[in-house]
Amino acid sequence: GTGADNDLYINQAIVFIEDAIQYRSINHRMDSRSLWLYRWYYSRTCQWILSLTITLILALAFIEKPSSLTVTSDVRYRPPAWNPPCGLTESIELLCFLVFVLDVSVKSYLVGWEEFWKNKWLMAYILTLIVSLADWIVSLSFFCAENVRIRRILRPFFLLQNSSMMKKTLKSINSTLPEMASVVLLLAVHLSLFTMFAMLLFTRTKDGQQDKEWVVYFRNLPDSLTSLLVLLTTANNPDVMIPAYSKNRAYSIFFILFTVLGNLFLMNLLTAIIYNQFRGYLLKSVQSSLFRRRLGIRAAFEVLSSLKDAPANAQQTYVSVGALLRVLQKVEMDSRCKQAIMRSLKICSCDHLSAAQFQKLFEELDKDAIKRHPPSPEYQSHFMQKLQFAFGHPYFGYLGNVVALANIISICVVLVMDADKQPSERDDFFLGAINCFFVLYYLLEMLLKILAMGLKRYLSYPSNRFDGLLTVILLVLEIATFAVYGFPHPGWRPEFMGLLSLWDMVRLGNMLIVFRFLRIIPNMKFMSLVVTTLLDLVKNLRAFAGILVVVFYAFAITGIMLFEGAVGPLGNTSAVNTTYGNGTLKCGTYEQLEYWPNNFDDFAVSNWSPSLFPSLLRLFTAYLLCVNLICRWAKIYFVAWWLISSVIWVNLFVALLLENFIHKWDRRCHREPLSDIEYQRTVELMFRDVLEEPTEEELMEKLHQHPHLQLCR
Q1: What CA dihedral angle connects 229, 233, 236 and 241, to 10 degrees?
Q2: Is residue 282 pLDDT above 70, yes or no?
Q3: Where does this polypeptide localize (predicted)?
């Protein structure tokens, strides 16, 4: 009937607009039941359950055998870890798999059979589940005693496939790899050539005393290649060149040429190529997101124009404002955008909207999120107005910055004076007195600002919330200090009492005061620009952080499989020819460097140990020496991690950092800073000024290709 058709069109428009808001594809089933299932699947509750399931299955690695539930990872002091009984973590894993099976089933049904075969992510999702379930069955058949569990390496895929932005970022990285590979190949040629030069230059001589460079660093091809690769990271600089340099200073020319060509030219060239290529591919990805948004809005217009009450026109189609209002009431969208669209409809004061007008209404989704601060209170008293003007003036904030600087200087003076004194010799009267004075000033400043600005306006500024929180904490610490030790007086050196000594409490208060000095950042334009750029990156780096978690997780699990238990409590002393009785240890070995906590005996330490980018190869060269691994190919694991994390990933981060900073620097010239307005941007909005709008023909052509939507025209 007509009423049922109208309800279907309304529901279709609602889903299309929600797809546009979230940059989702509109190629899914459009019947009533499928639309209900689609909205249920993308509801907050369902997505929260899915996110919780992904977090849970990833977190299982911390309690699975080998468990990370120990206080320390140092093999010398680590007690036996608690390992869960067989079947406990496997039961949790099975529940997670069932949720994932339901997830992929719903997704596959909603996109339809035709779209399913085009979607490589869905097919990979199903394949991952099949392999994981098969490995789970094998694990139970061996009573959880097997060491290799393939499904653990596959777990990060569940995180990856659940984020559209992570997929786009990964696609951009994948498209950038050919250009990166050319520079990496050039780096390999650079390493190979200099390795051959080194082996020819530092050959074995008759005088054994002069062969230190050959013995330690260039004895054979693998050792030579490793030494120069570590030098490329600067982790063994200048150790690698000292034996040769002590023999003849002319040898330094070799190492200078290697470092200049490798670090200054090739590594920076890699950064430039990654920035240029990745920016282009990320821009294409964001352009695709814009097309999806415009397509979703246009699809909503087309289905609303099919309503029976829509005005008929042979030349152009229209949508009634009443139908749009019905849709807006049910759409899940940001209240700011919804209110802005409602205001635009009232200002328009028209009954029907054309396609261009309809599209223009939803351009509100592309605008910066604007936060306006509440107004200051209006006082009737002339005296209160003067106080409000005085304490609400920027100069009052500058005075607070000067006082904070004076506080920092006074703390520095006291620290310098007491640096060499024993705790029993310190007179804490001066430090306690100045802390008391400054904390009272901070409290007074906070109260006066609240008086001038009002509580709501005061709390609307992040800098004020930061100041206020630290002031309250400092006040509580001061009150606790006075309650336990009394007021400061000459010779104030009370003994240890309670949980913290006086010096510990004063030191904690001083650290907070130093931290509070960061309040000056908003008053320095350039520094503020840098900090806001970093904060925006933190807000918009979820996709990058997610892929980094995927890489960390996969390498950590692989490291456990390869190197678990390789280091014993006393190490393999035969590999380094050392004795522990008199404490003599060979310099640079795993034992001498006391790298005992860095191992692959459980997931927690494996997950962060390889993140020591600069000293990574040096650390694990010592590690391999300690465990005396026969297979030298194990170094490939650490080199691969260095290439992915330190070379590729860090450069990708630099690329996004540069793009964000350049964008903010350019916009600074076109926007006057307003004290009552804050702008918040996303990655999509970062490129908004350079994106191209899709044409009418492109949108309609794409809509006519929709597998589940039949348009009237």
Answers
A1: 70
A2: no
A3: Late endosome membrane; Lysosome membrane
In the chain, the percentage of residues whose pLDDT exceeds 90 is 16
Burial status of residue 611 (CB atoms within 10 A of its CB: 0-12, 13-18, 19 or more): middle
Helix, strand, coil share of the chain (percent; to 5): 70, 0, 30
> Span 154-171, mean pLDDT?
86
* pLDDT at position 132: 95
Let me know: does 236 contact 227? Beta carbons within 8 Å: yes
Taken in order 261, 263, 264, 266, the sign of the CA dihedral is positive
Q: How far apart are the first and last CA of the chain?
A: 21
Which residues, in sequence order, are CB contacts of 634 under 8 Å at separation 6+? 562, 563, 624
**pLDDT score for 311:** 61
Q: Are 131 and 139 in contact (CB under 8 A)?
A: no
pLDDT digits (tens, 9 = 90+) for 654-708: 777 776 667 666 655 554 444 444 444 455 555 666 778 888 888 888 888 888 8
**Which is nearest to 117 in space by CA: 711, 707, 709, 710?**
707
DSSP H or E run through 673: none
* Cβ-count burial 490-520 (b if 16+ within 10 Å, e if not): eebeeeeeeebbbbebbeebbebbeebeebb
- What are 96's two structure tokens? 């997670």
Would you tell me how many other CB atoms lie within 10 Å of the CB of residue 661?
17
- What distance lies between CA 220 and its chain's CA centroid? 41
DSSP string, 304-317: HTTSTTSPP-SS--
Helix and strand numbers (H, E) in the chain are 30, 4
**Candidate from 288-292, 318-322, 664-668 with smallest mean pLDDT:** 664-668
Stretch 94-115: mean pLDDT, rounded?
Answer: 93
For residue 320, the cross-strand partners are: 352
Instruction: Give dist(CA 459, CA 467) in Å, integer.
Output: 10
Predicted confidence at residue 618, as pLDDT, reads 44
Strands (E), 321-442: 352-353, 369-372
Pairwise CA distance, residues 111 & 125, whole Å: 14
pTM, entire model:
0.75
Q: Give dist(CA 86, CA 120) in Å, integer.
A: 35
Torsion from C-alpha of 88, 89, 91, 96, nearest 10 degrees: 160
Please write the tens of the pLDDT for every residue from 26-84. Answer: 999 999 999 999 999 999 999 999 999 999 999 998 888 888 888 888 888 888 888 88
C-beta neighbour count of 293 within 10 angstroms: 23
- At residue 572, the pLDDT reads 45
**528 in Cβ contact with 521 (< 8 Å):** yes
Output the CA–CA distances (angstroms, integers) from residue 461 to 334, 371, 458, 468, 520, in the order listed. 21, 10, 6, 11, 14
Q: What mean pLDDT comes out for the span 215-243?
A: 83
- Region 204-213 average pLDDT: 68
Number of residues that make up the chain: 713
Distance CA 35, CA 109 (A): 12
Q: Which helix (H) or strand (E) holds 143?
A: none
Task: Let me know: does 217 contact 244? Beta carbons within 8 Å.
Answer: no
The answer to whether the beta carbons of residues 512 and 473 sit under 8 Å apart is: yes
Q: How far is CA 392 from CA 380, 384, 456, in A?
A: 16, 12, 14
CB contact at 8 A, 511 and 499: no
